[in-house]
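re the bet — no i am not wrong, look at it urself. input seq straight from the record:
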Amino acid sequence: MLGKLLRHYASLLKKGDISNQQEVAERVFQETRQKISQPTISRYLKKRKVTRKKPTYHYDEQLKHTDKIIKFIEKIPSLSKSSVLALDECSFHLNEVPRYAYATKGQRANRRKPSKRGDNHTLILCVQNVKGRGVVKWELIPRGMKIHHATKSCQKEGLSTIKELLTSKNIEPEYLPPYTPELNPVELCFNFLRQNAEKQKPRTTDELEASIDKAIKLLEQEDLTK
């Protein structure tokens, strides 16, 4: 009886219908009047390779675009792997700090940080899925700076849209389905760059740019085909 209940609640944990192990213990007690400790539940889950981890969230709005998402995923293998570029933008703030720290068990990990979040900056990143030197181009745009590069390029070439400009350069744009940033390989790069920036704790634009440049050099050593 107990084993069957634990299997059931382990399944609910994985689905997110139960939030933590203490809730499992409480539900088991409600149904069986048998007390079970959190460490016991932890060992049970560990034996079945169920671990606690940070979830990857997906937008609810994706449900409205399921067909488009499936078609895009099915199309990915047919694309030429040697010539695929991924482009996106991401926000970075000054005054960021590491999200985790170490401390003795039972004690708080006390750290100091600025009371206000710093100015927002936008990082534009383009990568290619190759082994080594996969970063094609990156640019950090400080808050308030207006960018006219794409518009000027279109005007220079006598074209009316960015898509036409890309087509003239033999580049075929593929747009992600709505609300699916996780399908863009650049997202994983952003996670890596942000974690490194948080470790450096940049307080000025120059410090932020330097921390990103340092992380980019590490990223260029990685295999971006995986």
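see?? Residues 196 and 214 are 9 Å apart (CA to CA). told u. also The beta strands are 85-93, 120-128, 135-141. so pay up
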